[in-house]
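User: Before I run my own analysis I want an independent prediction to cross-check against. Here's the chain; please return only the structure tokens and, at the end, one sentence I can use as a sanity check.
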Amino acid sequence: MAGATGFADCLGELVCRQAAALGERAYVEDARSDAVLSFGALERWRTAFAQSVLPPGATVALSVSDPLQCAAAFVAAMASGRWVAPLDPALPDAGPSGLESLVARTGAGMVLSDRAAPAAARCPWVELASFAPGSVAAFDPPEFTPVAASGGVILSSSGTTGPPKVVRLHQNKLLHVARCVVEHHQMTEHDRVFSPLPLFHINAEVVGLLSTLVAGSCLVLDDRFHRTDFWDLMGERRVTWINAVPAIISRLAELRPGETVPSGIRFVRSASAPLPVATADRFEAATGLRIIETYGMTEAASQIAAHPLSVPRRAGSVGLPVGLELRVVRDEMRSGAEACLPGEVGEIEIRGASVIEAYSGGEHADRFRPDGWLRTGDLGYRDSDGFLYVVARTDDVINRGGEKVFPREIEEILSADKAVASVAVIAQDDPELGQVPVAFVVLADLGAGDIEETRRAVARLNKTLEQSLVPARRPVALHVVATLPAGATGKVRRRALREPGLAVLHSFVGT
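Assistant: Structure tokens:
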């Protein structure tokens, strides 16, 4: 690793020292062009921000489409002591989940963008070109003078399921996790990491941009995931590991005719959502590459747990806690009492250097215990060796007449069938039982007109469910859909499955 990792509590000093050590070596490359952002260029960006009229400690909303420009502005703004609120550049301008609402929610004083301001923009709007290094006079930056680290990232939920959660992550929390990623993934300056994940999400920001900076390695950024010629691109770019999500791994789980997996890839990292065991098995069998499953959340600056590289993959496990404390507690616990026994399902709680102490504005205060533990809202268990298994979100558990049904148990069974491309199980209201499980399935290579083949596939799935689950845990209906509603990282938006107007190709009731 490059020698600047000891200064990781101050992002500005880290950027300066990596620039001095690595100069014009590539820090970020564009997967689709020859564009490169070097460590030296990143330092010039940082200095340009530091010399700008933007006051230190100010909050800047970042809405930038170009991956390299977004990466440069994101790191440089934080490294100059500003707070950055990265936004999806495809957001609508107005509406409760639009750009103006998110800008207001994060407290940003201006929007920095690579496009012109919309006609109705109320917040000051500045085009990114005015902050680029070329817009300031040429200079030789002086030796960096250590200062108290300030600035970080501000991320906000949409607020569609309650009051919006606004998360402020100081740069020392971000860099703590980046160091943990580097150590756990055994990153060196020779690594070339590929990431097609959106830079307005915490995973791409910390696991991608900041861990690469800490390690002094190179990050290959794509604007999104492209299945066509994927493995050829990995070979051309000499990629050594891939930062992915289950939706991507699922699409790569079968090689197309003529495809060859490059030999230099060490592993594929899975994050952002549970990875079905069957999908991981198919991917590893087809590609010969190892899956490293992880678990994280924005409130912990991304990574919470990760499967060790040194041991064989434990099916369904997200590994061991990395850089923080983790416990699994019983539902009735309301204070720091004894954790669940191995194998006993309870709520996952975390605390440590990367974990926030509160949401901005004091919302959802009940999730924070007085002794520092954060209730994640996830249910899981640990085995006798401490490996963690995540089974559900607390609000996704189906209460069928008093019996808890975990959607993932059903999803794993359905995912094992090769005809199933993706699946999600949700609760449906029932007048007698309260709730019952209902499954939504996307079938691979089947269109709306393949009704007979669809019936055969569904009959096979029903038989599998009958053999695998007691009647109380089986879905009462199975809906075949063309696609599952998902967010930018591929995580299924389960609540959208309950909305009227969802396009269902076929429905089979009484499964």
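Sanity check: Confidence is low (pLDDT under 50) at residues 1-8, 136-142.
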